[in-house]
# Entry
Amino acid sequence: MKIVLTLIAVISAIAISYLCFYGVEVTATIERGDNKNRCSISSPIFVKVKNNTFSTIRDITFNLELFKGNRSQNLLVDTDNGFSVFDVVVPPFGEESGCYTDRYIKSFLNPNNIEMRNPSAKEAASSIMDNVKNFRVFEDSHKVYISNIAVSYIE
# Structure
């Protein structure tokens, strides 16, 4: 009887673990702390896909939304009918990531949109420092979310 109860407990634990962890997880962040984001400042939205399934992911479509402060209007303008595509193949139980940007983000980080062809070292350093300062303001005042996730698998 003890063996049967132990077997039932083990099978139940495996089933609960399977239900809790099986599936596809898609997350997005613009935060730089704790190595959360490996993207450049020019494409600061870091999207990570964890495939906790036995199938290979072909691509994922999703709504990428960026909000400033307590506002409820999506500030991203370069999406295709509100959808973004993650077109990297993700193997079973694998993880991949990508970086995203938008015209709104570019205008926020580089508001003067000055392109220097042959900048001096001082001008280049000043431009880099301005971009970093603008990014810090951007990071503190904006939040990114993902919704309406649709996963396509390779059969």
